[in-house]
Write a structure and sequence with these properties.
Blueprint lengths: L2 E7 L4 H13 L4 E4 L3 E7 L5 H5 L5 H5 L4 E5 L4 H7 L4 E3 L3 E3 L10
Antiparallel strand pairs: 1-3, 1-4, 2-3, 5-6
């Protein structure tokens, strides 16, 4: 299933940020990532419309100032993506721990 990734600025305070996340969850967003200066929120693409965003009171100002962006994230094996972000581990050139898709070590 494809997802929509919403990118919006962080709210002015931690309390308001928690409210924003709760409001997004109420309209169908399932997961959230807070980064340095913005929030990423994810919703199944079949549940997303622009009207959904207008139902989130804490997004009103950001929507009006055009600080809210979204894009489609194509369906993929998220576990595989997560695993690929971990490099193999070499322990004292005696033990090499790797996933099957990592290159074998020649030590």
């Amino acid at each position: 299933m494809d997802y929509i990734e919403l990118k919006c600025p962080l709210a002015a305070s931690e309390d308001l940020q928690e409210i924003r996340v709760a409001q997004l969850a109420e309209v169908g967003f399932e997961s959230f990532v807070e980064e340095a200066d913005h929030l990423l929120a994810y919703i199944p693409s079949d549940q997303f419309t622009v009207e959904v965003l207008h139902a989130v009171p804490t997004l009103k100002e950001a929507l009006e100032s055009k600080e809210v962006f979204w894009k489609t994230i194509a369906d993929q094996n998220w576990n595989s993506v997560w695993e690929s972000n971990y490099p193999p581990v070499n322990i004292d050139n005696r033990c090499y721990i790797r996933a099957p898709f990592h290159e074998a070590s020649g030590f």
